[in-house]
């Protein structure tokens, strides 16, 4: 057999292979390849889940540094614009600017501890001491709303919940309830120690973040090959933009919400106005749900005072929601976080179910980071496979016409 016959034979074998069902259904099928990739990833995840002991040291490290890094990161996004502005305007060394900012921040914290903390502490003690009565009054009010004959089952359930929660919040029961929620004195000491260490180390991390944080992306991409550095640096830039917009926006809105509720409660003469305002501001960090959750203690206190006070509390809530939705949120947040409300709610539900309260607070910024990575990869995939997606200059009619001609 000469060379020409061999080439013809190999060509015929290749044609038979390309025409075979295995080639068409498996090798040349994007759907089948995608299924195989998903199965391979699932298999890797399954194997890794059976080898958790490998990741236990990494888990310990992450649990140790997570809290101080998060605290330092939040303050970094708050203070970094001020440091950048001062550096550009006055041309002073960045380390000196950071030192001045730390001194001012320490004085502000000292003022808060000396003047604000005692008032909050006093109102907190009074609220906790009277909370069983407030909660019982609120529970009886809610049960009364469902006093119709057709809602007796729901009324009985609400009565049971009200009784159980009232028992939990009794001062005599709190002494026995708290130790049961914590396994031992050692666990309490361990948690307190970790919190103290986090509070001590967070300012150190914050100092170096403010001083050298702008060089961190260049340092990290320096470990990557040259062709990936620019795209990865863009990802870091987009992540930083998303996180900074979210953190500054949410904290700014939370601050004004706390001030609005505080002023509103003081005007109507509600007890614990400062404490309830701070609670409202903190809970407002939970998107869409925080303000409604913050109304529960305010409604309980207002209802216990008088029905007319309850009406005034609801009026304050309506005014605050109107100002927040029409003025404060658009002015501070703007269109920086383009997330659909349903998307945010789903993220809150899933992250809260998996990670608890921490997931509820950090779920949305975590989703923003993941979205940046996924969007960047998807844009790259579309550029790499232009035949799969409609571009700005190509219509669906043109694609269908090309397929008919083929």
Automatic annotation (TrEMBL):
Superkingdom of source: Bacteria
Membrane-spanning parts: 21-48, 60-83, 95-114, 188-210, 246-265, 272-290, 296-319, 354-374
Transmembrane helix as UniProt keyword: yes
Main location: membrane
Membrane topology according to the record: Multi-pass membrane protein
UniProt entry keywords in alphabetical sequence: Cell membrane, Membrane, Transmembrane, Transmembrane helix, Transport
Intracellular or extracellular location(s): Cell membrane
Keyword Transmembrane helix among record annotations: yes
Family: Belongs to the autoinducer-2 exporter (AI-2E) (TC 2.A.86) family.
Protein name stated in the entry: Transport protein
Upper lineage: Bacteria, Bacillati, Bacillota, Bacilli, Lactobacillales
